[in-house]
Design goal:
This protein is an alpha/beta fold. Helix content is 32%, strand content 25%. It is globular, with a radius of gyration of 16 Å. It binds S-adenosylmethionine.
Length: 199
């Protein structure tokens, strides 16, 4: 199974050390997004594909000291950077594949996934696994600090309707995985899709 992630490891391992300094101005966007999950003090949240843990301090701020914050990532180098940056002080860092999370059914109130979905080999199955670990009524936030068009332009591309994050495709993908898409924002300075775990 580890071979399935070769392309992810090959892509992110050499980028881990410079990851945070590449995007120094994103902090406020993560704080705003973390505030939109509807989390309350004491809640439990997973940052799926947490990378260097940029979202963990913002997630800790909303669930407070009694809450639970987990950060899971498949790339060891990203987790090492997270630890080096002290993000382990905001949440528990786990090396885990979002396809097979070491968590019981329904233990979480929310999952936050920033920049994650486009890197998944089996996004439908992975969204189903995220639904498994979230209680009915819990929330999934798929976030990126810039919108689809701005991100495509950064990579010298344009967006197309067959993009997995295009609203109709994402709605269908999530519905098949146990989520109902509740709101969808795709603006230059933010991509945020919020979905609710169906009973
Ligand atoms: C674009 S980076 C975003 C990192 C972080 N969320 C952020 O916003 O800075 C995507 C991350 O997803 C992780 N990832 C990709 N596939 C994964 C999987 N199947 N399970 C866990 N993490 C995964 C990568 O290792 C990488 O750290």
């Amino acid at each position: 199974m580890a071979d399935d992630h070769t392309h992810v490891l090959d892509f992110f391992t050499p980028r881990a050390a410079g990851w945070d300094s590449r995007f120094p101005d994103d902090g406020a966007a993560y704080t705003t997004a973390a505030g939109m999950l509807g989390l309350r003090p004491g809640d439990a949240v997973l940052d799926a594909g947490c990378g260097t843990g940029r979202a963990l301090p913002a997630l800790r701020a909303v669930v407070g000291p009694r809450g639970t914050v987990l950060g899971a990532d498949i790339t060891p180098a990203m987790l090492e950077e997270a630890a080096r940056a002290g993000r382990g002080g905001s949440g528990t860092l786990l090396r885990a594949d979002v396809a097979r999370l070491p968590l019981r059914d329904g233990v979480l109130d929310a999952v936050f996934g920033a920049g994650l979905i486009s890197h998944l080999a089996r996004p439908g199955a992975d969204m189903t696994e995220l639904a498994r670990v979230v209680r009915p009524g819990g929330v999934l936030a798929l976030f990126h600090p810039i919108g689809r068009a701005a991100l495509a332009a950064r990579h010298g591309r344009t967006i197309t309707d067959d993009d997995l994050r295009a609203e109709p495709r994402l709605r269908e993908l999530l519905a098949g995985a146990g989520w109902r898409l509740e709101s969808y924002t795709d603006e230059d300075d933010r991509f945020l899709a919020l979905a609710v775990r169906q009973a």
